[in-house]
Amino acid sequence: MIDIETIMSTDLITVSPEDDLDMARMLMRDNRIHHLLVTGDDGILQGILSLSDLLAATDSFLREEESRLHPRDIKVKEIMVTDLATVDEHAGLRQAALFLEKHRIGCLPVVTDGELRGIITDTDFIGVAINLLEQLESMEPLDSGETF
User: Fold this and answer.
1) Within a domain: residue 148?
2) What is the spatial order of strands in the sheet that 45-50 belongs to?
3) Is residue 22 part of a domain?
4) Which terminus in the chain has less CB density within 10 A, N or C?
5) How many angstroms separate the CA atoms of 49 and 39, rounded?
6) Neighbour count for residue 119 (Cβ, 10 Å)
7) Using CA atoms, how far apart are residues 133 and 143, in angstroms rounded to an integer?
8) 126-136: per-residue pLDDT in tens?
9) Domain presence at residue 144
10) Minimum mean pLDDT among 34-43, 103-112, 132-141: which range?
11) CATH number of the domain that 81 lies in?
């Protein structure tokens, strides 16, 4: 069994519940990510902010400027998801993938003994799938009559 630890991201980008959505949006854009882990001053995981949550909470630019809600006026704690599913770093990849698929979520924070260790996302699983496909293709016999 391959553990989650093998493919999880450990270079974590986090925000505080008191940070505003403008900062969260910039972090997501600059780091090309779709999920931010929300931690308190103690480093304990308090929630997750996804790009779709952020976009849903952001007011349309089509609305009149004076009545528009600005991302800098909305705190992360106002829209973060706090009912979290987490996974242990020693759990199997298959079980985690099935969980993501069943619940239609894009990531799982990796928590071991209460400590935030990483995050595993649907993008991580795409990387695994690509790797497996490449391995399968390299094992296929070449047909000498086939052209590319």
Assistant:
1) no
2) 14-15, 35-39, 45-50
3) yes
4) C
5) 11
6) 27
7) 18
8) 888 888 888 88
9) no
10) 132-141
11) 3.10.580.10
pLDDT of the residue at 147: 58
Count of structural domains within the chain: 1
The alpha-helical segments, DSSP class H, found in the chain are 21-31, 51-57, 93-103, 122-139
pLDDT value for 59: 63
Cα–Cα distance list, 96 to 54, 73, 131 (Å):
25, 36, 18
81 within some domain? yes
Residue 76: both structure tokens together: 């992360």
The owner of tokens 């959505």 is 21
Instruction: Give the position of tokens 């001053």.
Output: 41
| Residue 118: DSSP 8-state | E
